[in-house]
Amino acid sequence: MYPVSRRSQRLELRELTLDDVDAVFAIYGSHEATEHLSFEPRTREDVGHILARSIASATERPRTEYALAVVERSARHLIGFGRLAGDPHQQQAATMGFALHPDAWGAGLGTETVHLLLCLGFEDQGLHRIWGARSPLNEASARTMLRAGMVEEGRIREHVQKNGRWRDSIVHAALSHEWDNPSLPDEAG
């Protein structure tokens, strides 16, 4: 499926372009934004390579990865990065992840982002299972995934190495037979 364009009341998921490098770098290069992610802050050059790879993979057949810009519709600027990637170890399954610029935190935009990614996977791709992992310390991400309709499933011990130390991850997932595209609560925060 190319190009992707999924919308909610306030957000749009769209294909990335090379013009997005600075906006994605503002997220992936930020210590604050990457504190709970599985990687250290990236350089602008790293972000350029990530975008180039993501743009190239967008037209592959079959498409196995959807790396997408999260755009605030009213201002038309990129506020985040969302990813849905086929899981080669599970049939009809994908992993999902997202990162938003700290200026966008606390307004329910993460919940809308996850909801849009779930819609893309279940409604457009016919997936059975979508899962994501978070840092045990990232309670905001836990609330976000729960509000979007995911269920906390458990802990993967020493799953990610960051800053020279192993860190556990908490897994959240949604299943297609549980998904009925629930509308998001107006007060989602």
Structural commentary:
- The chain is α+β, with helices and mostly antiparallel strands and 189 residues long.
- It is 27% helix and 33% strand.
- It contains five helices and eight strands.
- It has helices at 21-28, 31-34, 44-57, 109-124, 139-147; strands at residues 5-7, 11-15, 65-72, 77-86, 93-100, 129-134, 151-162, 165-175.
- An eight-stranded mixed β-sheet has the order 1-2-3-4-5-6-8-7, with helices on both faces.
- Helix 1 packs across helix 3.
- Mean pLDDT is 93; it is low at 185-189.
The N- and C-terminal alpha carbons lie at a distance of 31 Å
- Spans where pLDDT lies below 50 across 5 or more residues: 185-189
- What Rg, in angstroms, do the CA atoms define? 15 Å
Spatial strand order of the main sheet: 1-2-3-4-5-6-8-7
- SSE order in H/E notation? EEHHHEEEHEHEE
- Specify the number of helices: 5
Could you provide a short overview of the structure?
The chain has helices at residues 21-28, 31-34, 44-57, 109-124, 139-147, and strands spanning 5-7, 11-15, 65-72, 77-86, 93-100, 129-134, 151-162, 165-175. The chain is α+β, with helices and mostly antiparallel strands and 189 residues long.
